[in-house]
């Protein structure tokens, strides 16, 4: 007997085919002499309707076991469905129950549960329609990302999760240590004696793979990272996780315009791919989560992103007739409310803001001739705010050294990074995309905790 996935049966299954499916019961409806069981195997939002006739061996005993959440295997024949809502259904010939789910205690009942409640049952929530759709779309986003870069000849590079550089300036770091916290070795000055630690020095969980990606770009021209990053920032927001995934392309022989072009083509590709591969899930988000999801996807795919400089953005914000909580003034960083105003209200599409004040941006961003701004760009998305942050990197050794010192860091600590400018330096650029922010943007899910299977946030690392 051929085992089939339900998504594929619903798409192309033909009457009279004999098949075998395996999955979990979503609902059971008992009628006189027969029963309908909705079976889902995670391959699609829609479940397959299984019809069980009372003539089946052990009908009564089996039906009693088939409550929501139970696992089963069905062998049968596909038949055209009499009811509406599905084209085809499975007429059961043999049903085997793998595991029952006690309806008295199984937390997922047919009614709608809040996302807050579902977070408390993180081990079961993926069996719901919403989370099924989210994680299929998340998978499609990841596949689209690899496809985009692989088609363009970018090398996927694996950068370390444990890092010794604490100077990337991207956020608060988690320490990684092998020391016994109950008996910490001390130096004469009573500082922690990291010489006795596993790596013989302080180490951290990475906040970004960019510096290492630059190393690899200087050998392979175009590379990208796609892996987990960590920030110990105590920001309990709907857009911040302590552990999240980041995508970071890095291109040699590329300036900021090339970087913006790539970022825009990249977002368009990912949206197109997801719409094509997960149309039902996207329709579901549009109906149930946020009725602008499909229009937004369309907007991204079919419109050029609005490009403007930070200086222009500031003057537009100063003219805006909205009351912002945070001040707007040249030299201050844009807050989420400002970013959302630009993308949501003013331009109503993604906006690329470039050329930020050097003082508020990282040391590695290329200083412009005005010596006040750097060649940085952020892509601001409606509803989410910053989704991509990128820059052309400073490729001039002397300028980079000065910037490192100006930001209170030691050039010696970055000797290998500076070597890239000593030997065969080239203009280069890249960006970082928060993967969960992308999935949020794509699905309309309001809380970032609901687009990663096992969220890590302050005071919460269950499951
Ligand atoms: P924000 O101002 O929103 O905190 P950031 O300036 O700290 O962002 P970057 O350091 O530029 O962000 O990181 C690159 C990308 O990673 C961001 O554009 C964003 O999409 C994502 N990102 C940053 N911090 C987080 C986080 N804590 N959780 C999830 N995604 C994040
Ligand atoms: Mn941050």
TrEMBL record:
Keywords, ordered alphabetically: Aminoacyl-tRNA synthetase, ATP-binding, Cytoplasm, Ligase, Nucleotide-binding, Protein biosynthesis
Q: Which Gene3D superfamilies match?
A: Bira Bifunctional Protein, Domain 2 (3.30.930.10), Nucleic acid-binding proteins (2.40.50.140)
Which positions are tagged coiled coil? none
- What SUPFAM superfamilies has UniProt attached to this entry? Class II aaRS and biotin synthetases, Nucleic acid-binding proteins
What chemistry does it catalyse, as a reaction equation? Answer: tRNA(Asn) + L-asparagine + ATP = L-asparaginyl-tRNA(Asn) + AMP + diphosphate + H(+)
Q: Where would you say this protein principally sits, based on its record?
A: cytoplasm
Q: What is its EC number?
A: 6.1.1.22
Entry's localization field? Cytoplasm
CDD domains xref list: AsxRS_core, EcAsnRS_like_N
Please list the GO terms describing molecular function: asparagine-tRNA ligase activity
Name the top EC class. Answer: ligase
Q: Which domain of life is it from?
A: Bacteria
The chain positions of domain Aminoacyl-transfer RNA synthetases class-II family profile read: 135-453
Q: Member of which family? A: Belongs to the class-II aminoacyl-tRNA synthetase family.
HAMAP family, per the entry = Asn_tRNA_synth
Summarize the subunit comment: Homodimer.
Q: What is this protein called?
A: Asparagine--tRNA ligase
According to its UniProt entry, this protein's organism is Scytonema hofmannii FACHB-248
Its ancestry begins with:
Bacteria, Bacillati, Cyanobacteriota, Cyanophyceae, Nostocales
